[in-house]
Amino acid sequence: MNKQEKTQEIERILDLLNANTKIYLADCSSLTVEKVGQFRRSCFEKKVVMQVVKNTLLKKALERANDSKMAELIPALKGETALMFTEVSNIPAKLIKDFRKGGDKPKLKAAYVEEMIFIGDDKLESLAALKSKNELIGEIIGLLKSPIQRVIGGLENKTKDGAEAAA
Question: Are residues 94 and 20 in the same domain?
């Protein structure tokens, strides 16, 4: 790769970093080609973009990213790095967790989710437990709906009791 190609690749990675607020770095080394293919398919099915990138190019892109907090991901750039982007913050963590039930890879190196930095594989459980925007909205609607349902249920019982007493 010549200098111009490297510069173009850094710019491409930088554009991806600046366009996303949910970024995961994973270690897929030591996975067989077949397992990597399965992992990529799983990512594709869940609408997660996964790319293997050179650490040196990713480091330069992270240093130039719009959010300076992304530079905190640089210490995690050791070994092979798979860069993952998503719209739903917990999907990559769940994918990694589900996929490695048969082994110890892939491992989470680091993640940048909604301006928060997570470093290390021990953060996988925390990331998998994050609620997506739709899940939070559903819970709020459920909480708002619950008191109304109780009032309506109480009124219906009063109406039935009153109707039975009158009969």
Answer: yes
Taking the C-alpha atoms of residue 97 and residue 91, their distance in angstroms, rounded to an integer, is 10
Of the candidates 18, 22, 19, the one whose C-alpha atom is nearest the C-alpha of residue 115 is 22
Q: Distance (Å, rounded) from C-alpha 81 to C-alpha 55?
A: 7
Please write the tens of the pLDDT for every residue from 115-166.
Answer: 889 998 888 888 888 877 777 788 788 777 777 777 787 777 776 665 555 5
Predicted confidence (pLDDT) per residue in 60-97, tens digit: 999 999 888 899 999 999 988 999 999 888 899 999 98
Check whether residue 11 and residue 52 sit in a common domain: yes
Alpha carbon distances (Å) from 94 to 43, 57, 71, 100, 111: 10, 27, 25, 10, 13
List CB contacts of 80: < 8 A, sequence separation 6 or more. 27, 28, 29, 52
95 and 165 assigned to the same domain: no
Q: How many domains does the chain have?
A: 2
Looking at the structure, tell me whether residues 72 and 147 fall in a common domain: no
